[in-house]
């Protein structure tokens, strides 16, 4: 069995795309989304004392070819971030239960959508 491949033309478009993608400053781009997320999460966090709302931050990490954006909250309730207890709900010390409020997902959804839209625009414009 013989397999042959014929091609016509060149790889200029593919090379232009890959070279353009290589030059993007992904850390700067993600930092912009990180700041936007911190602002949105701070505004959406249910406020008792304001400590949890003011404790949002973000981190950008790079491991090999993978770059990640993570939102963080440093206000702890014991060894658990307080915003996780607000989000998911929790038992009280007196046998009661505080129902969770899903505020993180709806707050970040528009930012995730914007990241996807901007990434698609970036890919198609290279």
Question: Would you kindly provide a written description of the structure presented here, covering whatever features stand out?
Answer:
With 126 residues, the chain is α+β, with helices and mostly antiparallel strands. It contains four helices and six strands; from the N terminus they run ααββββαββα. The strands form three sheets. It has a two-stranded antiparallel ribbon with strand order 1-2. Helix 2 (26-44) packs antiparallel against helix 4 (104-125). It is elongated and about 75 Å long. The mean pLDDT is 90.
Oligomeric status: single chain
- The strands making up the biggest β-sheet line up spatially as 1-2
- Helix and strand element order: HHEEEEHEEH
Question: What does the main sheet amount to?
Answer: 2 strands, antiparallel
Question: Concise description?
Answer:
With 126 residues, the protein is an alpha+beta fold. The chain is 48% helix and 21% strand.
What layout of secondary structure does this protein have?
Layout: H1 12-23, H2 26-44, E1 56-63, E2 66-73, E3 76-77, E4 80-81, H3 82-88, E5 89-91, E6 97-99, H4 104-125
Antiparallel strand pairs: 1-2, 3-4, 5-6
Helix pairs in contact: 2-4
């Amino acid at each position: 069995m013989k397999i042959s491949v014929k091609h016509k033309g060149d790889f200029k478009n593919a090379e232009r795309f890959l070279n353009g993608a290589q030059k993007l400053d992904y850390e700067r781009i993600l930092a912009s989304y990180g700041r936007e997320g911190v602002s949105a999460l701070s505004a959406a966090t249910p406020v008792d004392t304001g400590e949890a709302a003011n404790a949002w931050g973000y981190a950008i990490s790079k491991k090999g070819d993978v770059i990640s954006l993570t939102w963080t909250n440093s206000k702890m309730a014991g060894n658990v971030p307080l915003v996780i207890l607000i989000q998911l709900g929790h038992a009280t010390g007196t046998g009661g239960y505080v129902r969770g409020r899903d505020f993180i997902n709806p707050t970040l959804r528009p930012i995730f959508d914007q990241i996807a839209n901007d990434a698609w625009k970036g890919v198609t414009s290279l």
